[in-house]
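Researcher: We're teaching a course module on how sequence relates to structure. For the next exercise, students receive a sequence and then see the predicted structure as tokens, so they can try to spot secondary structure elements on their own. Here is the exercise chain.
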Amino acid sequence: METREGGDVYASDEPQAQLQQRVDFCLQIHNESVKAMRYPLNTHKAELDSAVAARERERELAQEIEEGGADMDEEDDDWV
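Model: And here is the predicted structure for the students to work with:
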């Protein structure tokens, strides 16, 4: 039995062509999935408004705690 010796596959352009085909397929899938994504318009503005309101509430609460803490120190020291 005699076998024919195969040529060097890596000397040809075939591996590069296969890799390019795979990369093209992956890019096509990515581009189609990005196009399929739907985002409601201006929803980020509602999130920003709620974040600003939350920050304002935190400032007010911190101010009340500071004012209340100063009153407690002056009036009642034995509550602790």
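Model: If you want an answer key for the exercise: Helices lie at 14-36, 43-75. The chain has two helices and no strands.
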